[in-house]
């Protein structure tokens, strides 16, 4: 169950990462409030997952999911560059997440 919560935390982190830019350096009240709520929710879910998962594994998976999602949405929505290097980096991150899950004793 805590792995599912961890994945949910990572998904919230992806949404949170996309909520930062609309705050315009935290000058817009509603986007800023949403950004803070999403960030707090992501960390809350992460802390819940850490009840039984090792801290290092949980945090690495959490940030990995966030990074993969942020890069992917950056490419698809923000028109960030789509390069071989970025795709290789994504493949390594995803491989690391899979390896962390596969080797966790839980």
Question: Short summary of the structure?
Answer:
The chain is mostly helical and 106 residues long. The chain is 75% helix and 0% strand.
Give a written overview of the molecule.
It is flat, with a radius of gyration of 15 Å. The mean pLDDT is 93. The relative contact order is 0.16. The chain has helices at residues 2-19, 29-49, 55-76, 84-102. It is mostly helical and 106 residues long. α1 (2-19) packs antiparallel against α2, α1 crosses α3 (55-76) and α3 runs antiparallel to α4 (84-102). The protein starts with a helix and ends with a helix. It has one domain.
Keywords:
75% helix; 106 residues; mainly alpha
Work out the radius of gyration. 15 Å
| Low-pLDDT residue intervals, each spanning 5 or more residues | none
Number of helices: 4
Span of the ends, CA to CA: 10 Å
- Along the chain, the helix and strand elements come as HHHH
Number of separate domains: 1
Overall 3D geometry? flat
Number of strands: 0
Share of residues in strands:
under 5%
Helix content: over 70%
Give a quick account of the main beta sheet: strands, pairing sense, barrel closure: none
Structural class: mainly alpha
